[in-house]
Amino acid sequence: MFSGKTTELVRRVRRYQAASKLCLLLNYKGDARYAEAGNVVTHDLTQLKAHPVETLEEAHNRVWQYDVIAVDEGQFMPDLVEWAERWANEGKLVLVAALDGTFKRQPFLPVLQLVSLAEDVTKLKAVCAQCHREAAFTHRKSPEDAVELVGGRDKYEALCRACHAQSSTEMALSSINLNSPSAVSCMHPPVKRKSTRISNARRASLPEAGRENRSKIISNPSILQSPSRRRRSLQAVTIR
Ligand SMILES: Nc1ncnc2c1ncn2[C@@H]1O[C@H](COP(=O)(O)OP(=O)(O)O)[C@@H](O)[C@H]1O
Ligand SMILES: Cc1cn([C@H]2C[C@H](O)[C@@H](COP(=O)(O)O)O2)c(=O)[nH]c1=O
Description:
By secondary structure, this protein is an alpha/beta fold. It has 8 helices and 10 strands. The protein has helices at 5-18, 60-63, 80-89, 109-117, 161-174, 181-185, 200-205, 214-218, and strands at residues 23-28, 40-41, 47-48, 51-53, 68-71, 93-96, 126-127, 134-135, 137-140, 156-159. The strands form 4 sheets. It has a 4-stranded parallel beta sheet with strand order 4-1-5-6, with helices on both faces. The chain has a two-stranded antiparallel ribbon with strand order 2-3. A two-stranded antiparallel ribbon has the order 7-8. Strand 2 (40-41) and strand 3 (47-48) form a beta hairpin. The longest helix is centred in the first third of the chain and has 14 residues, at 5-18. Adenosine-5'-diphosphate is lined by residues 1-7, 42-44, 126-127, 129, 158.
């Protein structure tokens, strides 16, 4: 999120409109964040009139009138692949802005399927809200676990690899109530693992309560997955 997907979609639609192309802009109906229902709105509040839908099929009976079909929030369209591919095969120019991954860095599968069907793919990045490097990932700041949770700055921030890993670990730690027997019983017996040892600086930053119990918790490798901050980024290159 915050990488400029909607900004780029709006830029391209306006450019085609300037070239007298008829453009249909579709947005996700479930995104009721903004007063003007259905409009596509960027995080810096640029707006463009759009048609709200829950599925792309809902728009099919009007698509014939347009040259360009632009879809925002493509990750929420359950029939994204089927209709984007069909309209493209019918000669429409189809533009899709979508998240490729969830807040857990899991794939939004239809979006990744579309990558192999598309002629062009642009992956945009935001600025890491913590360290100001390039940010390719989204961190959810609130505790909800469902994949779909509409929100903006109130619930999400863009983070780089290292800051995302660190924030996810901190969320996992803070979600464990140290006084709860169930939290304790789900832990593995403490294992000495060099790579998961907590530093004195990190220990000092933890809340007073339960500080001595933290070493038990971080010995559970499923909870602590933070890579070293020195780890390099993963760069993927696809060749067609
Ligand atoms: N961490 C951030 N990195 C980059 N841009 C940000 C960030 N936080 C807020 N913004 C603002 O968000 C705008 C991009 O918004 P938008 O196009 O809606 O992004 P997306 O659709 O990818 O979420 C930027 O132009 C900038 O003004
Ligand atoms: C990462 C992630 C995001 N969402 C939601 C949050 C926003 O409503 C949209 C993304 O909007 P943007 O145009 O990219 O700013 O998706 C979600 O439901 N689940 C997630 O994992």
